[in-house]
TrEMBL record:
This is 2Fe-2S iron-sulfur cluster-binding protein. Pfam families: Fer2. Keywords: 2Fe-2S, Iron, Iron-sulfur, Metal-binding. The keyword Zinc does not apply. Belongs to the adrenodoxin/putidaredoxin family.
């Protein structure tokens, strides 16, 4: 099972084990990671699961789809080139060791 590292704004890291096929949001919520609010439950309609994918992993994660891209314009934190909604990033074995940063505005 892949390990995902959620980094909080203060630099604290939470390493969680995630099942392949789940999404980052579910891995965070299931493991009590602060800053992933997930108000809409993973429907890409609230942007409260916004994360910054570490630049080293951007190509592995890929770009947002059109719906996600539009929702990223409404995040509480600044949108960056590596911004993603964690409810839209599916975990796979290829993402083992993935680092995502949680914006300060969500914590």
């Amino acid at each position: 099972m892949p390990i995902v590292i959620f980094e909080l704004p203060d630099g604290t890291q939470r390493k969680v084990t995630a099942d392949s096929g789940t999404v980052l949001m579910q891995a965070a919520v299931s493991n009590g990671v602060d800053g992933i609010v997930a108000e809409c439950g993973g429907n890409a309609s609230c942007a409260t699961c916004h994360v910054y994918v570490d630049a080293r992993h951007g190509e592995l994660v890929g770009p947002p789809n059109d719906v996600e891209d539009e929702m990223l314009d409404f995040t509480a934190a600044e949108r960056r080139p590596t911004s993603r909604l964690s409810c839209q990033v599916q975990v796979s074995d290829a993402l083992d060791g993935l680092v995502v940063h949680i914006p300060e505005e969500q914590v």
